[in-house]
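Predict the holo structure. Ligand: adenosine-5'-triphosphate.
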Amino acid sequence: MSGGASTGDTPGDRLLARMLARVTRLRSFRLRIALASTSIALIAMSVLYACSTYIIVQRRAGIVDRMLTAQLASPLFQLERPPPWSAIDAHINASFSGFALPESTSGFAILRICHAHAGELYRSGDWPAELTPARLPTPAQDPQTLDSHDGSWRVGVIANGPLTIWIGANRNLTNIQFDEQLRATFGRFAGAMTALVLLIGVLSWTLAGSTMRPLQRLTGVMVRINAMDLDQRVSTQQEDPEFAELIAVFNAMLDRLQRSYQQAMRFSGDAAHELKTPLTILQGELERSFARAASDPALEQGMANMLDEVRRLDSIIRKLLLLARADAGQLQIPMARVNLGPQLEELADDISLMDDSRAVRLDVPAQLMVNGDAELLGQVLHNLVSNAIKYGTAGGWIALTARIDGDNWQIDISNASDGIAAEHWDRLFDRFYRADQAHSRRVSGVGLGLSLARDIARAHGGALALADPGPGKVCFRLTLPTA
Ligand SMILES: Nc1ncnc2c1ncn2[C@@H]1O[C@H](COP(=O)(O)OP(=O)(O)OP(=O)(O)O)[C@@H](O)[C@H]1O
Ligand SMILES: [Mg+2]
């Protein structure tokens, strides 16, 4: 039920409209290109960072293994009278301390030495209990990672005569500094990446904008083009081949359109022109025969009907001819200063003469000077007044008023009326369009008057519009520059 629902401009509606507008903007091609390139750059940089971190971690592990091997092969173990094992243990610890944080002082490495016959000769004091002999690698094996309750150890082994030596590097301690370094690099990398992504975003937005420029130019021309202006073309010079091709196709389409439009225009102009002469002759002949048929009432009536139809045809053809000229831009206007005041007065008198039941209001200055062709402008006024008579309420009022608005005259031809239904407003000026067919059929006319009147007004630098579609009153406003 929509009965009680409010469709007003509430804050909620406004918020919804704003959100919709934002989503619509996101659908912009330019924005999508910018977002896509930025995302690709972001993904590429993240993958690069992950790969380089992985490689660094691997290399780091390799360094610890190499150090273990080097320590195991230490000449200290080869001496005939080696220093005390505890001293060697301290020496090894010191070698691995370089990996750890400065504040950690011990526990970097552990040492265990076994003699083939005498058994265990030495074990570091902090050797984890979990690293039992059974878990330790044999001399044939590579270094292994072993976990104890207080950390993780990388343990390497070597057989040196009757001695087997195990050295373990504390992975926790040695990794801490490494993790710190990684964290610091990540911080720096994240900062640089954000700046870079922003820069790429701005660059892709600008680049996408400049890529769209030829399309914008094309759209601009498309918007400007109308039937009167088909000779516009978009230049393909300095355009990239991809766009130049599109523009060339568009220009070729305009060529074809212009050719067929000119052909159609020439045809209607030529046809109207060719029909005018035989019709004038026919009309003349009919008028003469009509005068001779005065003695036969039936013949006279028939002749009168034929004459009406021929006059109607003649009026249509003249209008078509004028319209064809206007379309071709050949509506020659011999510009002269014309006073429309007397013409409007005459028209007001004609209305009263034709139908004295109509109240006519005339409110125009005596000097209503415009530049143009008196006959063509007379045709415009005549059509508007005859429309007011034909379509106005029977016995209702008709008003002809004029006033200056800036540099223009505003001439209003209004009549009492039930109004014109909204669905006709946009089409009233179309050729052969007649609103309210049932009513229009009863009054003469073909639907060319307003179309022609508007063309003539425009050719004079003016305009013609439906100013008030009623109900109660219909008003057509003719605007013409003052002279
Ligand atoms: N003053 C008016 N009041 C109501 N409807 C009007 C008025 N003027 C024009 N119209 C409507 O607009 C239509 C088009 O008018 P237009 O002058 O172009 O053609 P027409 O009068 O029918 O024929 P034509 O002028 O070519 O002899 C008319 O058929 C009529 O329906
Ligand atoms: Mg008319």
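Residues 383, 386-387, 445, 449 surround magnesium ion (ligand 2) (CB under 6 Å). The longest strand covers residues 151-160.
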